[in-house]
# Entry
Amino acid sequence: MSLYAQNISADDFLEALETAKEENRLSGFRTGQRVRLPASGEVWMTGDLHDHRTNITKLIKAADLANNPHRHLVLHEIIHGDHYDPDGAEDSWKSLYLAARLKCDFSNQVHFLLANHDLAQVFGDGIMKAGQSVCDAFHKGLKRDFADRYHYLEAAVSDFLLSSPLAIQTENGLWFSHSLPRNDEIDGFDYGVFDRELNGEDYKRRTGAAYQLIWGRGVRPDGVAKFAEKVGAKLIITGHQPQEMGYHFNGDQHLIIASDHNQGVYMPLKLDADYDMEMLQTRIRKFVALDIQV
Ligand SMILES: [Mn+2]
# Structure
């Protein structure tokens, strides 16, 4: 059965977004912008999802959170995919709804990470794809599907996206965030951002700490080492930089993964294992290898 429900009403969507937002904010694992996972159980890390409905469906079915109460699932960069209509409207809000519902049902097990596409959508910052603004396309999709209620949904989507933490950290030395600051921003980065509420300055282009973290590209292994030391992490997994083969080792402390295409991957990890990069490599799983009906 498809996880993508038909005929989702504006009220259903609003309620899912509001509840998921509250769960994000009130999470017992969260302090400031950081979620600290418990020292036992599992966490499944993913890369950018971008409304890839086959992979999202496989992930949710394989994770089977209901029957695995000590399993955590990390989701990020869910919106802005390839489901366009001829008028240029795209409806990745459907994956966002599914993710929000999952958070409502498994609030202690589902964790989001703020991503740059989220910020772009919230602040109307144009990200262009094939000459079209993906933010306008998302907006058009809401307008097409929710007519006169779309304003409310747009506001609720923004509130929900902004309620996501910046980072997830584990007792066994893992750090997950959407991306990392650029190499030349690592030294001046405001590491205090993880321990407080965000303000308008944090989202500012180039200078904001949240902006630098989730928009940053091209950090080098020496920058990764500095960042890891500052935040008390051993190994870092992020998405954000597209990976044709699904993953890339950026030195011996940073793994970049992608979940938004046929070669995309996810990583089932133990919260009590002492990982090094070589061991992490053995935890990479391809979605194509998952024999699950979607
Ligand atoms: Mn990104």
About this structure: The CA atoms of residues 202 and 208 lie 4 Å apart. Residues 23-289 form a domain with the Purple Acid Phosphatase; chain A, domain 2 fold (CATH 3.60.21.10). The chain is about 35% helix and 15% strand. The chain has one domain: 23-289.
